[in-house]
Amino acid sequence: MNTVVTAAARPGLDPLVAEVSAVVARRLGSRRTAYAVADVLRAHPPGLDLLTPAERAGAPDRYASHLLHAEPDFSVVAVVWRPGQGTVIHDHVSWCAFAVLSGIEHETLYRDMGDHLRELGRADNRPGEVSGFAPPGDIHKVTNISDEVGVSVHVYGADVSRLGSSVRRVYDLPVG
């Protein structure tokens, strides 16, 4: 079934979806697709008006995800993080490209060593910064370390409306 889910009309979403569709149709492979979609986000970054004021406020108890568009080959999701909110250590079901619109997303990267995780590095992703990645090697944790609400737009190479989440696995191994 080729079901396409798109949330209410949002400024800038239709051109983003069209450009991502064109990239995905090229069947470049996971890593190259993630980087090419990151280039799309760099060239045409979405604005905060992609979300309503209520959506941009976030949720008091955890970060909030807003599915903006989904089809069989990719989904567009906005993530809203209040100060201090973050994820658990996890990886993904598919490639991903993201753009930070506000806040500072502190990302810690890990490698699975079997019985523990090893920290590989850290990055502070600031507004205007864009990146892409693909499994394997996408184990990370993200936290908004700024004093403002953080918003980022993520494009995943999977239908998150069908899967329910972009997360493949949550890791509770010791870090050392």
Structural commentary:
The radius of gyration is 15 Å and the shape is globular. It is 20% helix and 38% strand. The strands form 3 sheets. The protein has a 6-stranded antiparallel sheet, with helices on one face. It is of the alpha+beta class and 176 residues long. Helix 1 runs antiparallel to helix 2. The longest helix is centred in the N-terminal third of the chain and has 14 residues. The model has no long low-confidence stretch (mean pLDDT 93). GO terms for molecular function: dioxygenase activity.
Features:
176 residues; alpha+beta; Jelly Rolls; six-stranded antiparallel β-sheet; three-stranded antiparallel β-sheet; 20% helix
Helix content: 10-25%
Structural class by helix and strand composition: alpha+beta
How would you name the CATH homologous superfamily? Jelly Rolls
- Give the terminus-to-terminus CA distance: 45 Å
Taken from the alpha-carbon principal axes, the silhouette is: globular
Radius of gyration over all CA atoms, rounded: 15 Å
Number of helices: 4
How many strands?
A: 11
Q: Could you name the ranges where pLDDT drops below 50 across 5 or more consecutive residues?
A: none
Question: What's the story with the biggest beta sheet?
Answer: 6 strands, antiparallel
- Which fold name corresponds to the CATH topology? Jelly Rolls
Averaged pLDDT: 93
How would you write the strand order of the largest sheet?
1-2-3-10-5-8
The domain tally reads: 1
Q: Mind telling me which CATH architecture this is?
A: Sandwich
Strand content: 35-45%
Name the assembly state: single chain
Organism: Actinomadura luzonensis
GO molecular function, one term: dioxygenase activity
Keywords: Dioxygenase, Iron, Metal-binding, Oxidoreductase
Pfam family, one: CDO_I
